[in-house]
Write a structure and sequence with these properties.
The protein is mainly α. It contains one helix and no strands.
Amino acid sequence: MNIAELQTYGYVAAMGILVVVSYGYIYHLYTKRKDADGRDYEEYGDLALKDDITDTPISAMSKK
């Protein structure tokens, strides 16, 4: 086994680990969408697009 073969195996192993970690992170993001307070911050993603004065607010504001 020469150094080129060893580098190839290392590259394939590193790419496999990175793929598994990336998919795990994406899965985590989509399954844990709500924070500890129960608020889903993904609703705020369209906030820049829906900023007209006549648009409905994302969350209701209290009258206090």
